[in-house]
């Protein structure tokens, strides 16, 4: 399955900045950063559950927001980019 993950983490406090770094690290472990707070993830249903559990544990539900969009298979391959964008290899292995 293909997921588009976006997040907005409050960073006016040191704790918020730490949460932001943690959310980014979690997302980097599962997918490709395509913008500062946007990741494209290709995963299985089981991996999605692990990802969501890790993100839930990392955020402050009152101050932070994460949106996860499940997309049709092949959506990433059909994406059109403008400007300084990346075209991550979703069909290959994720190398950390």
How much helicity do the residues have? 25-40%
Low-pLDDT segments: none
Q: Quick one: how many beta strands? A: 4
Number of domains: 1
Quote the distance from N terminus to C terminus.
20 Å
CATH architecture label: 2-Layer Sandwich
Strand content: 15-25%
Could you name the CATH class? Alpha Beta
Overall mean confidence score, pLDDT: 90
Strand order of the largest sheet: 2-3-1-4
Q: Number of helical runs?
A: 2
Largest sheet: 4 strands, antiparallel
Please tell me how large the radius of gyration is: 14 Å
Which structural class matches the secondary elements? alpha+beta
Features:
single chain; 96 residues; alpha+beta; Alpha-Beta Plaits; four-stranded antiparallel beta sheet; 2 helices; 24% strand
Structure in a nutshell:
The chain is 30% helix and 24% strand. With 96 residues, the chain is α+β, with helices and mostly antiparallel strands.
Fold and architecture overview:
This protein has 96 residues and is α+β, with helices and mostly antiparallel strands. It has one domain: 2-Layer Sandwich (Alpha-Beta Plaits), CATH 3.30.70.240. The protein has two helices and four strands; from the N terminus they run E-H-E-E-H-E. Strands 2-3-1-4 form a four-stranded antiparallel sheet, with helices on one face. Strand 2 and strand 3 form a beta hairpin. Helix 1 runs antiparallel to helix 2. The longest helix has 15 residues. The chain is globular and about 40 Å long. The relative contact order is 0.27. The mean pLDDT is 90.
